[in-house]
Amino acid sequence: MCDARLFAPQIAAFSGQRAIHVVPISARDTIAALAADILANAPSCFALAGLSMGGIVAMEILRQAPARVERIALLDTNPLAESPEVRADREPQIAAVKSGRLRQVMREEMKPRYLLDGPRKQEIMDICMEMALDLGNDAFLRQSRALQA
After folding, report:
1. Which helix (H) or strand (E) holds 51?
2. Counting C-beta atoms within 10 Å of the first and last residue's C-beta, which end of the chain has fewer, N or C?
3. Which domains are present in the chain?
4. Is 49 helix (H, G, I), strand (E, B) or coil?
């Protein structure tokens, strides 16, 4: 439930040296379809970074087109399918978001998992909430289903 704002400092630091593309991963409800969409619009050879769900999509991109990925950075992600318990835990969140409670789900269940304590924690949490609300209910539902599968 994040967008390019998550990487604003990195984009600012690196964009003078190389082309940076931040690709949304909220338009499809499967990891394979998200990866295929990215590959359809990506250069013939590129470096790739993915955080959390983005890392899962990055691994699928690497599986689908290994010769196109020059290098890869995976951050706070894992290659394993969700456990049955985690998949089941998503269902009440999905139901809540379907009934218009995205803000509540993000505040009570998702945001507490994002960051450890630090000097900018509240500022970063506020940005995370803005990104989630801007992406909206449909993106949350598609991402949840993609992660479950």
Report:
1. strand 46-51
2. C
3. 4-148 (3.40.50.1820)
4. strand
